[in-house]
Write a structure and sequence with these properties.
heterotetramer, A mainly alpha (308), B mainly alpha (386), C alpha/beta (249), D alpha/beta (414), B: 386 residues, two-stranded antiparallel sheet, globular, D: 414 residues, alpha/beta, Rossmann fold, 2 domains, 14 helices, 17% strand
Amino acid sequence: MFSDYSTSELMSIFAMQGFAGLTLFSVFVLMALGLAIIFGQMGVINMAHGEFMILGAYITYLTSNIFSQWLPGLYGSYFFVAMIFAFIAAGLLGMLVEWLIIRHLYHRPLDTLLATWGVSLILQQTYRSVFGAREVGVSMPDWMMGSYPLTDLVEVPINGIFVMCLAIGTTCVIAALMYRSRWGIQVRAVVQNRTMAGAVGINTQKVDRMTFGLGCGIAGIAGSAFTMIGSIGPTSGQLYIVDTFLVVVFGGAASLLGTVASAFTISQAQSTMEFFLSGSMAKVLTLLFVVGVLMIRPQGLFTLKVRR
Amino acid sequence: MKSSGFWGSLFSRHDTLSFVVLALILLVVLPLSLDIFRLSLMGKYMTYAFVALGLALCWGYGGVLSLGQGVFFGLGGYMLAMFLKLESSDPESTAIQTTPGIPDFMDWNQITELPWFWEPFYSFPFTLAAVLVVPTAFAYLIGVAMFKRRVSGVYFAIITQAIAAILTILIIGQQGYTGGVNGITDLRTLLGWNIRSDFARYVFYFVCVGLLLLCIVISQFVSRSKLGRILVAMRGAEDRVRFSGYDVANFKTFVFCLGAAFSAIGGAMFTLQVGFMSPSFIGIVPSIEMVIFCAVGGRLSIYGSVYGALLVSWARTAFSESFPELWLFAMGALFIAVVLAFPDGLAGLYNQYGRRHVERQLDKWLLTLKSSTRTASVKGVAHERQ
Amino acid sequence: MNASNTDFVLAVENLTVSFDGFKAVDDLNLYVDEGEIRVIIGPNGAGKTTVLDLICGRTRSTQGSIRFRNRELTKMTESDIVKSGVGRKFQTPSVYTELTVYENLEISYPKGRNVFGSLFFRRDETIVRKCEEVAEMILLKDQLYDSAGLLSHGQKQWLEIGMLLIQDPELLMLDEPVAGMSVTERHETAKLLRRISENRSVIVIEHDMQFVAEIADKVTVLHQGKILTEGPIDTVKNDPKVVEVYLGH
Amino acid sequence: MVTDTRTKRSGQPRRLLKRLMGVTAALAFSATVSAQDVNTTDLAVTDDTVTVGILHSITGTMAISETGSVQAEKLAIEQINAMGGVLGRKIEYIQEDGASDWPTFAEKSRKLLTQDKVAAVFGCWTSASRKAVLPVFEQYNGMLYYPTFYEGLEQSPNVIYTGQEATQQILAGIDWVVDAKDAETFYLLGSDYIWPRTSNKIARKHIDKLGLKVVGEEYYPLGHTQFNSVINKIKLRKPDVIFASVVGGSNVAFYKQLKAAGIDMTKEKPLVLTISVTEDEILGIGGENVEGAYASMKYFQSLPNENNQAFVKAFKERWGDDIVIGDVTQAAYLGPWLWKAAVEKAGSFDVDKVREASPGIELTTAPEGYVKIHKNHHLWSRTRIGEAQPDGQYKVVFETEELIEPDPFPEGYQ
């Protein structure tokens, strides 16, 4: 199949395809990071994760409208403001959900699945009532659109680079928080032994709420970033939920490094196969690959072998 | 009262009451009080009850939560739909096609010959066997692969979800062979008999009730057997069971297969009553909804799960007729409320508040019955565990 | 590993298991005689529970052999190990709280252990009698039809021992059987163990030295995955290495 | 499957009678005829009202697309009522939610037909939902006005298809890019289900006939949001035209990523010819992201004719200034009007009579211009090419001279 193309063309294709894989990787990382915290660290199966992302997207939409109406001069930078708002809004909503529902369910992880499914239904209908059933479009600041041509064939989309930087940045901040800060130690302590953590004076309720809020907040940032590449409608969140869970589970739920590695593996597998096969088959094979690996390593790619 | 020994080993006194009440509602009360439109809706909801029943065994008893029950429901439905489609694709009625005699959607996809795996579905006995065997065998494969590797809990749930996603994409993608996203539609007759008439709807309703009651009897048998107790034991202390010499994976696989078989029966009945089958039942959303039916009814209760499926489906129709824009709010709130306030669902509520009263009445009633007839077998009652 | 046949009931040789480089059990050799009660002691993290996990197949060894009546256990499934005659009690009492004491014992009875066997399992006289017999032995005859969830901590321990007894294993492994028991209960348990060991070998992990003294034929002291010393209780108690390990921390 | 036994049975004398009634009604329908005369099949018709059904998804994933249709149908009904209704009766509607779920569509259509006895149903959007309700409409002899452009291959006596079937939409579009833009190579891309596949099949056959070349054909699952790989393939194959039938949420992702990858649709090549992006979709994609794409459809909001200006004005007055109107919305708007005309021609609400009266019905007031019902229940219509503008509207750059005959079973394209 390559005989039709010259060597330089092939090189550029591989370069672009590699970049496509990296973009997909960044998207997966952003989707999965929040869930890795909520599901991986807290054990909560948050089926409303997609809806939290869409909240971030809607907040971005609102911010863009506000800027274009009141602050057209600053429109170029609205996106950063929007991401902060998205983080705060999704985080606050997350804390509310935690307070209302999740905190009663820590000892029944599978039930969190059902309850958060209920939350996702309610959120979907809320979005529909507030923003209408139609999709909304968010216009990007000019500097984010378009691409940077490297050679004749190879063009690097600027928003792709942006998503990538965002993914890397968020991962670093989260990693620092989890493994370097006092709060991270508290989170991990609570995860490993709730009673003991409470006994040594950690306010477990507060830690839980902050952790859940942080996870949802990251989902909000992800949603905000996705306005660049995807659609925003009341039910768009559902598109992401299976992929997101698979990335987290595949990586080994409790490990941030695992999540990143698994996002990398799945995205590369998918984008490579997409190039050689039809989109549908590529998706099927990717999912089969993930399921197959999970059968062999049920605890995911990265988990420590521990004494039971 | 000849069968009291066998019956007694399957049903406790209270189970008997529950069974009789359910049978009365389904066989007498509903057919007398509903017109055929509402009754066949009930019939449709009942097909979900098969899935919920299977989940009560799998999840409630066995602790195995599958988010992919739609796969088996769909497979069962597709098996029957393939047969019905072939029957309605005879050469005369498809004369307009490039290749008459094959299903219309194949013709649209330039397929000129019936694919080999469709051939056996000309046979009705084969189809009936396939309805049960194919989904169960698929469940067996998944079960062995997963449980032998000790995949469990959340991981199992998510993997089954992924399997549902894979199958949906495959069926949609292979539309020449499967009918794609539209599914297999326009099913008309079963062995030459019009399945769309009101009479057929009545027949299917009662067949559906019959099969559901049969599945309940099977569930009773399983749950009251030693296997049922092992499942309960496994849910609490899996390692203890394993180190008592049981191969835990086999038991999980069995109960998973049983749930799959029930779902498949439900799927086949669905195809008959609704007149088509499409990949939208295999996906994730219907699979989760079925879990929720079961949770609302009571995941630990055979009867609860059935009522859960019927009531939630009914509520959804009722809500979406009167407040179409609000039903998602109502459903969402219902799920949250059930999980937070009544984790054992309706059955849990009943056990907490109603059951004692009912049992007392039942005792009283049995006593008067006994003293008045004098001939009633004492054995039947004495057989009950204390 | 060329392990030769031995007269021992259990012969553990060169057993090693490592978790990501950490050797929880390190080149361990352990031999248990017919009818012997062997007690394994050692400080926390010495690898005691891991040894039991390895024997009953819950954890897979990195290298070494475990031979039970000269049958290699390291490659067998857990349920096959149980069927070959090894029973194991867990550290925290592990009983089926949702079932009655009778049902707990019945499930442990070695009949109807496969799927269809259990599906068509029928209760018969022998089984009922056997369960009652064991219940009497473990002092739970009066609670036979109570839910196991209602038992006290000590009673749960006994029930779990009973569940093993009804399997009639040739090697019984008990992880801290008297934890959470009152002094009288400990005595009862000691008596029970003595009776049990008349026709089988028993391995016990225990911290309570008084209890150990009461039951042990021989004591093995583990430290950091290795055997520190082995012998009768009095010798071991006075061994300076053991004192060092226990008091040194 | 096309022959209708009920029509055959009705026979000559009745047909004459009906024709007479039709004339009478057409002459003076304001003189109210009693309900029994215009309704012999027990429909929900009283002396002052007639009930119809609206059946679309207002929840679930399809609500995004179907909202516009509901609005158009309601507007048409209100306008008809303001003009005095149908046969002197006000139209009342019962709205049901199909919830983006095909069995629910079947269930609700059965309810509308057997419980509510509606005289006609306006509804459905996806082919799958139409396929699901079709047996119900045939069994209970209902009448469905189906608004979406679709793949064809169907012709039911119980459905009036007010959108275009695939050949109407596609052939004119391809002819235009070949004539006006000298296109020679095509890349076919669609979501993975029957409409894009059938459309691409028709497109491919037509391209073959013209002696031109298809350099790639690709399908992605519904809801897919990552198109970078296919965009790379497109860059590699360098087609003159990307022929796109991507739908739903995928649309948004595809165009945003296409633009981000540096494919500028306002330049000559590759140009994008879409059959799925209406003004409704642009709302989600963002006008600047599809600027320069060409769409081949029968209706654009920007059509300059008077009918359309009045329609757009009324629509905005009713549903708000921000609203946009796409091809399907307009087709949905035609439904009640076509039904009204057929009922008045038949002089009866009876479905059999309405069906018989339908072929040949003309609508000179249609926003898209003049339409006429073909005897195969589809509409004669013109196809236009619109060029997407940054403000989210299309500029009409071409219009077929003749009305295109609908041909749901096109010879040589199957």
